[in-house]
Specification:
The protein is mostly helical and 272 residues long. Helix content is 56%, strand content 0%.
């Protein structure tokens, strides 16, 4: 048995068996003074070969091989987030002549007047126009057209075509590195009015929202000292969207008889 273990350790390029019986050397305590700059990202120390008696953990090997550490930094970068998102005006429903600009205007006005108020205060802003929505997110624009076509007589074929196009956008969004708040808002809109997609879309929305740390937006808005007006406005927008996701998640859980994904955080419990 001992010989077999030694063969295994040799194949894995690990220390000999008798090394594991040695008393570990305790390094003297280091000064609490830090030698690196403070970063929002937790430090991940990858030990060199031979520094430890056992091999590195699988997660450290994964981070080293895939460079996930750099990806996490990019995901936290607001600049990268603003560059990201599904913005494809050159291939949207109007550009590819699936619908005319006049039809899009009609459906947008129907959504803005009749459907948008049902999403509380987390929907598109009152001064939003068709062009601003098209430039902000193709997911949001397609979701608005998809849902509005349900409420206009004679637009059934448009809804069927938009449904297929929207599924293609969602498939791309799943593997896209960067998203925007309008991408999440578009997925929420489709989830509320498309029963066949609501459960899957709500889960995708929540994962995207977690990457944006929307669950911290409430504390940023009301507990950050000396917060600027722009930062407060952004935090409130994120908070409203997080509340909308909570409603969507719990409504879907009731409809499908499944447990909700989002927990009742303190900002939700202490809403008064």
């Amino acid at each position: 048995m001992e010989r077999a273990l030694e063969d295994v350790l040799e194949k894995l390029n690990m220390p000999a068996l008798d090394m594991y019986a040695q008393t570990p050397i305790v390094e003297p305590a280091q000064s609490p003074r830090s030698t690196r700059q403070v970063s929002q990202e937790p430090a991940i120390a990858i030990p060199k070969r031979g520094d430890r008696d056992v091999s590195p953990g699988p997660m450290q090997s994964l981070i080293e091989a895939t460079r996930l550490n750099g990806l996490f930094s990019q995901l936290r970068s607001g600049k990268q987030r603003r560059k990201g998102g599904m913005r494809r005006m050159d291939t949207d429903l109007i550009s590819e002549q699936v619908i005319t600009y006049e039809q899009a205007e009609e459906m947008f006005e129907v959504f803005k007047a009749l459907l948008s108020p049902r999403l509380y205060s987390a929907t598109i802003p009152p001064d939003a126009t068709l062009e601003t929505v098209r430039t902000s997110s193709t997911v949001l624009f397609t979701a608005i057209i998809l849902v509005s076509a349900l409420h206009i007589s004679g637009f059934e074929q448009i809804h069927e075509i938009c449904h297929g196009r929207f599924l293609g956008l969602v498939s791309s969004a799943i593997f896209d590195r960067f998203h925007t708040l309008d991408d999440i808002r578009g997925l929420c809109i489709a989830a509320f009015w498309q029963p066949d997609l609501s459960w899957k879309l709500s889960g995708l929305c929540i994962r995207m929202a977690t990457e944006f740390h929307l669950h911290h937006a409430f504390y940023e808005a009301f507990y950050t000292p000396d917060i600027t007006e722009d930062a407060l406005r952004e935090s409130l927008e994120k908070t409203r969207l997080w509340y909308l996701l909570f409603v969507l998640d719990h409504q879907s859980s009731i409809a499908y008889g499944r447990p909700p994904v989002m927990a009742e955080l303190r900002p939700i419990k202490d809403y008064e």
